[in-house]
Amino acid sequence: MLYIKNGTVIDPVNNRLCRADLEIRDGRIARIIERNMKEPEALQEEMTFRKRTALEGEIASESGAVIDAAGLMIAPGLADTHVHFRDPGFTYKEDIYTGARAAAKGGFTEIVLMANTKPSVDNLETLSYVLDKGRETGIHINSCANVTLGMAGKELVPMELLTKEGAAGFTDDGIPLMEEGLVREAMLEAKRLGKPISFHEENPSRIINNGVNQGKASEFYHIGGSPREAEIDLVKRDLALALETGAEVVIQHISTKEAVELIRQAKAKGAHVHGEATPHHFTLTEDAAICKGTLAKMNPPLRQEEDRQAIIEGLKDGTIDLIATDHAPHSREEKERPITEAPSGIIGLETALSLGIRELVKKGHLTWPELIRRMSTSPRDLYGLSGGRIEEGAGADLVLFAPDESWVVQEFASKSSNSPFVGEELPGVVYYTICDGEIVYGKSV
After folding, report:
1. Do the two domains 2-74+392-412+430-442 and 76-383 of this chain adopt the same fold?
2. Looking at residue 15, what DSSP letter applies?
3. Is 326 a catalytic residue?
4. Can you give the pTM of this predicted structure?
5. How large is the angle between the packed helices 228-245 and 180-193, nearest 10 degrees?
6. DSSP string across 42-110
7. Phi-psi group of 53: left, alpha or beta (phi > 0 → left; psi -120 to 50 → alpha; rest → beta)
8. Could you tell me what percentage of the chain is helix, strand and coil, using 3-state DSSP and rounding each to the nearest 5?
9. 76-383 CATH fold
């Protein structure tokens, strides 16, 4: 048994905060004992009261362990539905074990992996390998399968068979699908199987050098860059197909204001479409690509301030209902190559919650329940996964964090360190991540 007392619970379903104790038995929340909320000034004072170390305030008793969560917020464990653990094939960058440790350190208890491994997840053997290894990590690891065999964009994978073997959804993330008829066929099959299908929206015919925005950043590097039209083209096509087919479609890592508005319009027409935003796209602009170099090179690229603001507005009004990291580890050697040769992508599992706190909650764009809904409840609901709720009988997947304590980004549980946020001081210190009632991460001294 685990007893968590004196915490401030974030309830993303009922859109409220409450003071409560949680009693956890057999991996589930057995009891919630609500207490009176303090006045805001007193609560703020308590939240900044003292630094904690791992399991500080925990005492042993006949009934089990007790965590004193005074000053901490308690939220459903976070869920990231867009993650690259590079396993199999590229484990020098990351593997499922190190990726899971990075996830737990960041407050995540549920992960959905992308399928662009080597071999790719277009077959039962690779899917089983990933899922079996994921079961050894202490957190919940799911995986999408590919949409097309070998990610070649020519022939669909056996989607029904892969669904029966546990595929959470389908995506060729990393490579856009260009054949419209094949995309329509894939959407119809995904709808029949009741699975989401996700799309990387960049038309390669419009891109000269990917990873940086065509504009100030590309001019700085004297390269062609990636224009906003590359994203807009495929978003238009796939939203029309989503409306036609009725499939649950995810538009991944949105980078342009036009894409946000197109998704808003498609939702108004009744399309089952979901907008996904990364923390880096709602935090940074192409200026970071100039200042940070390859550490801020990604696909799609960071764009302009008006795009960043549009993404925030989309998060505020629900047009964008998912926050996902697109955690993309690369080695130091790879990222030290010239801008046109270095791979795109950054890691994000260990900084995502803090960036959401700093950019969205502390600046008044989202409430605490709204942030956690986009980082926990909505991703799980889309993929048909349990969790994302703090209620009696629910699984005990939780993150306990101090929202006003700060930390400096410098050491990672991930194998990789390719982050443009290295050296920054961020709010939101994760103290405990609990999965199925077990502490899978506790902050060390």
Report:
1. no
2. T
3. yes
4. 0.94
5. 50
6. HHHHHHTS----TTTT-EEETTEEEEE-TT-EEEEPEEEEEE---TTT-TTT--HHHHHHHHHHTTEEE
7. beta
8. 35, 25, 40
9. TIM Barrel (3.20.20)
Report whether 433 contacts 105 (CB < 8 A).
yes
Q: What is the pLDDT along the chain (445 residues), one digit of tens a residue?
A: 999 999 999 999 999 999 999 999 999 999 999 987 654 444 444 444 434 333 333 333 435 799 999 999 999 999 999 999 999 999 999 999 999 999 999 999 999 999 999 999 999 999 999 999 999 999 999 999 999 999 999 999 999 999 999 999 999 999 999 999 999 999 999 999 999 999 999 999 999 999 999 999 999 999 999 999 999 999 999 999 999 999 999 999 999 999 999 999 999 999 999 999 999 999 999 999 999 999 999 999 999 999 999 999 999 999 999 999 999 999 999 999 999 999 999 999 999 999 999 999 999 999 999 999 999 999 999 999 999 999 999 999 999 999 999 999 999 999 999 999 999 999 999 999 999 999 999 986 4
Domain boundaries, the chain: 2-74+392-412+430-442, 76-383
Which of 21, 172, 307, 326 is flagged as catalytic?
326
Question: So what CATH class is 2-74+392-412+430-442?
Answer: mainly beta
